User: What shape does this take?
Amino acid sequence: EAQVTQNPRYLITVTGKKLTVTCSQNMNHEYMSWYRQDPGLGLRQIYYSMNVEVTDKGDVPEGYKVSRKEKRNFPLILESPSPNQTSLYFCASSFHGLGGGETQYFGPGTRLLVL
Amino acid sequence: AQTVTQSQPEMSVQEAETVTLSCTYDTSESDYYLFWYKQPPSRQMILVIRQEAYKQQNATENRFSVNFQKAAKSFSLKISDSQLGDAAMYFCAYRSASTFGNEKLTFGTGTRLTIIP
Assistant: This one.
């Protein structure tokens, strides 16, 4: 089954304790992206990757890191989480460059609470 | 930068009736894609319908259809014969057609749709 998976689905942590949210897709997609969803703000892009070893900042990258060592995986790293990073996080993927407009498939979301 | 506006934070409709959700966007590009995503209580993001800006014909998917007005930069979603399972948050999203850069989706703030039995 074609899908994007994220782990963990729920996470409660404390300020400053490093954490990683994993994202994996099995569709051989080149493009992957992380979004965060906050009430009244919709979804905003954090980072994106157009292929292995190619990553760049989105609209709200402060406090986050990513890596893309393999095509299928795109982990989101919070080196020193703060309460303002409490949010719902989504990973998404799609094919890249095939005329554009390719549908982005979303993972199930990770709800993060930073105390 | 592109922006997407959903001016209706909440809407409600009687079961089996028709409802229209509004979306407007701002862009200087001539070629782009527009999407409606549904987010039920499970929080999963589900694609409802998509529209290519170069197509004049409005997209339709079963009970879901759009009214795409390119000159007015308007992209409304019509849900016919509303069902209880349609209750969700609906997001309008924009994506540039450029294949050489970030393919990010720019989202509106969402409209929460309630279905009244």
Summary: The radius of gyration of chain B is 14 Å. Chain B has a mean pLDDT of 94. Chain B touches chain A through 27 residues (CB under 8 Å).
